[in-house]
Amino acid sequence: MNIDKYKHTHVDILQRIDRLRALTRTGVEDNAAAIAQGVVALSAVVKLHLAAEDQALYPSLQRSGNAALAQLGLRFQQEMGPIAAAFDAFAHAWNTPARVRGDEAGFRAAANDVLRRVYERMRQEDRDFYPAIESGA
Length: 137
Known about the structure:
Hemerythrin-like domain-containing protein; 137 residues; Hemerythrin-like
């Protein structure tokens, strides 16, 4: 199974997270507009990625005839649910400059928590999930 597009999207998402981190480090208030715009753009990419996984990748693994991959896919899909919900709430909460500017500490705390969870999850997929798919394990 070719999963290059999923891996490529991970690179894009990680770069967007890094950009948000850099903007935050250089000043939330001064960069509130760019941060909010970055959150909106990141949200669009994440939603498309999750939809592709839910509509194509996971069903493909279930139909693969490989019980181990089907089970692994189901586990990863179920584990992603709470992370995706937290990310969605984050994206809705911090999608305007006024919200970001109005609660810098809240934004920083939410970003540190949610973006770290997304980052760690993608690293886990890159390290464990995608190689298992590619090897047919």
